[in-house]
Amino acid sequence: MTTMTPDAPEEPTNRPAPMHRVREWMSRPYARSIMILTVVIGFILLPLCWLILAAMNQSGAPASPIMEDIQTTIFVFTLISIPITAFVFAVLVYSLLGWKHVSGDEVPADASPAIRGNFVANILWSVITSLLAMFLVVWGLMELAQITANSYGTVSADEQPGGSSALIVNVTGQQWVWTFEYPQHDGLTSDILYLPKDRAVYFNVTSKDVLHNFWAVELGVKIDANPGAITQTGVTPNKAGTFNVRCAELCGLHHAYMQTEIRVLEKDAFDSWVRENGGQRTS
Ligand SMILES: [Cu+2]
């Protein structure tokens, strides 16, 4: 005959091991349904995302290395969000359609033990979500550095602002038009943004009245235009064509119409445009 000492309580033998509980949870009918729904919804979302990304390219983007980086980021983030979105929708759809009402407080006889408090499930949940969050942060910082380098840093000294081969454009926003001045070409001005292909361009951006935002859509350039201050950014257009400038800061009644064209021309065509419009190359 054995006797139990009071300080050594008997371990309950009916408590399943954590891994067993996870496996048991995965084999429950609703977990299987949610997994199947996740796969089905994921395959529905995949072509939809392709459509959205294709629509993004309709106007001719990307027209610069910056926009290429931005689109790669959108593409990668969209792709990795598909399984997560699909899982969330699967749980939602199953919760709406699959659960049945149980009256009273009694736990149904066929209910399995709750997954909450399970060590393996908690670790998996924490590790996977942390890895995902870390990936977003690291990717975001790397892309930001790359975009900043493409705006300012990766060109040789003579292509820096004030250098001999970079084109300087002074951008002025006012209610509700954009004006582009080319200080290296005798102060030539235009209300259409003409740019040469494959040459670094630096923008000095300002406003005459309220806050605007200079957005060269397909070039991936977007920077505030503030009255009384000059903001600077740069880009190297790498695709000839016609693109869009928009205002991206609500600036009054006709904000939505504060838009114009960008024409990225081959070098010779750009030089001809400068000559035909009276601009002299002064530096
Ligand atoms: Cu505006």
Short descriptors:
about 280 residues, alpha+beta, Immunoglobulin-like, 5-stranded mixed β-sheet, binds copper (II) ion
Helices and strands in order, then pairings?
Blueprint lengths: L17 H9 L2 H28 L8 H33 L21 H35 L13 E8 L2 E6 L5 E3 L2 E4 L4 E7 L4 E5 L4 E5 L5 E5 L5 E7 L11 E7 L1 H10 L7
Parallel strand pairs: 1-5, 4-10
Antiparallel strand pairs: 1-2, 2-3, 5-8, 6-7, 6-9, 9-10
Helix pairs in contact: 2-3, 3-4
Bound molecules: copper (II) ion.
Copper (II) ion binds next to loops.
How would you describe this protein?
This protein has two domains: 18-98 and 117-153, no CATH class; 161-276, Immunoglobulin-like. Helices cover 41% and strands 20% of the residues. The protein contains five helices and ten strands; from the N terminus they run ααααββββββββββα. It has helices spanning 18-26, 29-56, 65-97, 119-153, 267-276, and strands at residues 167-174, 177-182, 188-190, 193-196, 201-207, 212-216, 221-225, 231-235, 241-247, 259-265. The chain has a five-stranded mixed beta sheet with strand order 3-2-1-5-8. Helix 2 (29-56) runs antiparallel to helix 3 (65-97). It is elongated, with a radius of gyration of 30 Å. Residues 173, 212, 247, 249, 251, 255, 258 line the site of copper (II) ion.
